[in-house]
Amino acid sequence: MPTTFFIVIAVQFISTIADNAFLIVAIARVIELSAGAWVIPILKLSFTLFYVLLAPLVGPLADAFPKGRVMVWANFLKVCAVTLLLTGVDPVLALACAGFGAAIYAPAKYGLITELLDAKDLVKANGYFEGITVSAVLLGTALGGILVSPVMPVLDLPLQTPYWANTSTTLIAGMLCLLGIYSTATLMNFGIKDSGARYLPHDIHPVLLIRRFFQENRVLWRDPLGGLSMSVTTLLWGVGATLQLIVLRWAIESLGLALNQAAYLQGITAVGVVIGAILASRSVTLMEAPRLLPLGLILGLMVPLMLAVHSVYWAAVLLVLVGALAGYFVVPMNALLQYRGCTLLTAGRSIAVQGFNENAGMLVMLALYAVATATHAPLHILIWCFAVMVTLTMSAIYLAHRKLPSIICRVELPCTPSRG
After folding, report:
1. For the ranges 87-96, 283-292, 328-337, the one whose mean pLDDT is highest
2. Which domain holds residue 40?
């Protein structure tokens, strides 16, 4: 693995820690402002929105410039997002700014990996990447719990803005910590060297961008392996985003935990994902990814077990198991999608297509969760509906692809960056 790969890993680790801590701090700010419970899923939705809206642009943008430079711009937008929160701007708008940066960042970082590595190394690299990302999710969620806990110094300062007139917050110290972490990630991006990959020029006319983007969507969806992996990762991203909020609510309502304690428990899931990702990177090859589809059915069936758990210990055990299953399942699928994407399109544009579909899935599921929360749907009804939806969707994917002939992926050659 080249040195630049490990720098990208380090930046991803630090930035992801801050992203997940930011969400917890923003949730605490919403609670502090006595906003409705339905605003909490809107926070996550606002972070995700730009992944979908900017999808036709961010792929060509990532391919037009050295990807390390694009990553600098993206992380600087996250610095601006925390600054907005510090000045008292609505947390939904602040998280939207961070999501703007994250949407630009995603095709640059994943595209750089496909440029740096041979296709035969993608599952291994994704295992590293998924492991380090989920470890950062774990630490970031725990850090968020610390940043909103009583252990932080209380700097109760008034905030004067058009959005929240003359409000005060006890979260200033936590916000300053986030600002420092994002600033560190931004500076580290200057150490990422240009991979040297160059692509044919891409017309930036909006109509042509959108038309070409949806043509690229069709190419990836119509590919047997690309369509299979895209459908699975789209579902799992939506599941993960919604499950994150369901676990928080479950921990508070069913286990009687405070927000900071619920954040720690939520992070336990990430431990399982790391374990599953490591096992997958060591035992599953790229050509074996389609054989893992039955694991998705098991994942959906495990979700209702939450309702039978009433102790923190067994809750932690269950969440580790769910996380391990998800990690073992998603890493090979993600690697397969990256391989097919960079083979059929280019590194940056294929990641933009992937990000559009996965985050569109997140938007749909988060919107449904927000509506359910606004209508005061009971937690047990939400969990059962969630489990049934996951199981039925995975069953449909399995039935649609069970007749897929065994396709041996030839992975001796790296993706060709000269494709137009």
Report:
1. 87-96
2. 3-187+205-401
